[in-house]
Design a protein that fits this description.
Layout lengths: L1 H12 L4 H8 L3 E6 L2 E6 L2 H10 L1 H10 L6 E6 L49 H12 L7 E5 L6 H15 L5 E5 H13 L3 H9 L4 E5 L8 H16 L3 E6 L11 H7 L3 E4 L5 H14 L6 H10 L4 H18 L5 H11 L8 H11 L14 H17 L4 H7 L4 H14 L4 H18 L1
Parallel strand pairs: 2-3, 4-7, 4-8, 5-6, 6-7
Antiparallel strand pairs: 1-2
Helix pairs in contact: 1-4, 5-6, 7-8, 11-12, 11-13, 12-14, 13-14, 15-16, 16-18, 17-18
Length: 448
């Protein structure tokens, strides 16, 4: 029967995506056949529950095809495969690097208490990312020690990264979980170099870390020295079988000036993409979040919001907060009229600004030909207004990334990078901030 099970696994291999098969089906082993019962072993409880909920029917179908449909199928946690967890190094007070804000013991204070697995709404667009991060947090017998989650802003990758940290700390409060953004990692390294304490910086991440949650990898584009140091750090963590979660808005291959070596390291484990939530998932998200806010929203209004709000989770959260605020401040009933008022504040109506109008405004302001925004030139005289154009399109239209990309002859990943680059720079570049505010004001005037 063991050979039969291996043959069934080979058949399932062709029916599932490679990542899903490797994560859920491949680790299942034959334990025994007793009378009319077939017992299969899963590496841990989470894996067993996931297989029962999602793949049981597939396994039974394959058993039927092999003529073993008379067997009762039982899934158990394979205790023979369990090994005692490696002993952690004794805790000690880590030295705080100068000019680097300390975020609390083991960085726990930076984990959002609301970002846990039980509060994450699972749908087709994020199912694999959810299951993979949950498995990485809870399982000891996975073939992968790292997970890279790719998604636009507001789709849940940060939520899942925090959820991993919470799950690890809940199982073992002594675990050294470090949550940090790529930007903070860069700033800490620069500070350590300036103060001749680079060895402390290296030890902090290479030898005093059990789980690394590293966000916004796309920020590292063009930073060669930081990429090199991070690469060495990842190698050290991988050699010690530490767990690592990465998040990024762009695939490593699309991040400008990302080294091939670091790109290879980032994609050496599991890679998962979180897409825009589909309609049914949006309904689930809105329903659950309205319930948490004690917001009395009818099913009709939930579906109205789900139809119109299709950008990301933050847009939906904003709509519900606006509904609640208007209802309480104006003593108004939450009905379709109020819901439509909120929607119109978040989604452009028929009188919205077009990408063509934004292109004309940007070209006129920066004194360039509108067609120049479509050129392949990488000169600053072209790239600067092009990036501003992309950012304004994301802020003032409901056009998709693909549609915006088409207007300037670029890929959707390049458009996403340009928008996030401007969003980041306006926080520190007053000149760019004033220009964006001025152009945004002009666009608002054009709507009237």
């Amino acid at each position: 029967m063991k050979a039969t099970w291996e043959e069934i696994k080979n058949q399932i291999r062709t029916a599932l995506p490679k990542n899903s098969f490797n994560l859920w089906i491949d680790p299942i082993t034959f334990l025994e056949k007793k009378d009319k019962t077939l017992v299969l072993g899963c590496p841990n409880k989470f894996s067993r529950n996931w297989v029962l909920e999602n793949y049981l029917h597939l396994i039974k179908d394959k058993l039927y095809q092999e003529g073993a449909d008379n067997l009762e199928l039982v899934l158990k946690v394979d205790s023979r495969k369990k090994q005692p967890p490696p002993k952690l190094a004794p805790l000690h007070e880590q030295m705080t690097l100068p000019n680097i804000p300390e975020n609390g013991k083991h960085h726990r204070l930076r984990l959002n208490t609301e970002f846990t697995f039980d509060k994450f709404i699972v749908g087709r667009s994020n199912e694999f990312a959810y299951s993979a991060s949950n498995a990485l947090a809870n399982g000891d017998q996975w073939n992968y020690q790292s997970l890279l989650m790719l998604a636009k802003t507001g789709l849940g990758k940060t939520h899942l990264a925090h959820a991993v940290g919470h799950a690890v700390l809940r199982q073992n409060p002594q675990s050294r979980v470090y949550y940090i953004t790529a930007e903070d990692f860069t700033n800490q390294m620069i500070s350590a170099l300036k103060t001749n304490r680079i060895e402390e910086f290296k030890n902090r991440y290479r030898r005093s870390c059990d789980v690394l949650l590293l966000e916004e990898i796309h920020f590292l584009g063009g930073k060669e020295k930081i990429q090199l140091e991070l690469g060495y750090t990842l190698d050290a963590l991988a050699n010690d079988n530490k767990r690592i979660i990465f998040t990024s808005s762009l695939p490593p291959r699309d991040i400008p000036s990302m080294s091939r070596e670091l790109s290879s390291r980032l994609t050496s484990g599991l890679v998962s993409t979180i897409a825009d939530p589909d309609y049914n998932t949006r309904v689930k998200i809105l329903t659950k979040k309205a319930s948490r806010q004690n917001l009395p929203v009818s099913e009709e209004i939930i579906h109205l919001l789900a139809r119109r709000l299709n950008r990301d989770v933050r847009q939906m959260e904003s709509a519900l907060k606006c509904l609640k605020a208007k209802s309480e401040l104006l003593k108004a009933k939450i009905d379709t009229t109020l819901a439509k008022e909120v929607i119109n504040c978040l989604v452009s109506d028929d009188s919205s600004i077009t990408t063509g109008e934004i292109k004309e405004l940007v070209a006129r302001y920066y004194k360039v030909d509108p067609d120049m925004l479509r050129s392949k030139s990488r000169k600053k005289t072209c790239t600067y207004p092009r990036n501003i154009y992309v950012y304004l399109c994301r802020q003032h239209t409901d056009e998709t990334l693909e549609n915006i990309a088409e207007t300037i002859n670029r890929s959707h990943s390049a458009v996403l990078y340009a928008a996030e680059l401007v969003e980041h720079r306006i926080k520190t570049d007053d000149k760019m901030k004033h220009q964006v505010e001025f152009l945004s004001q002009k666009l608002e005037e054009m709507k009237k």
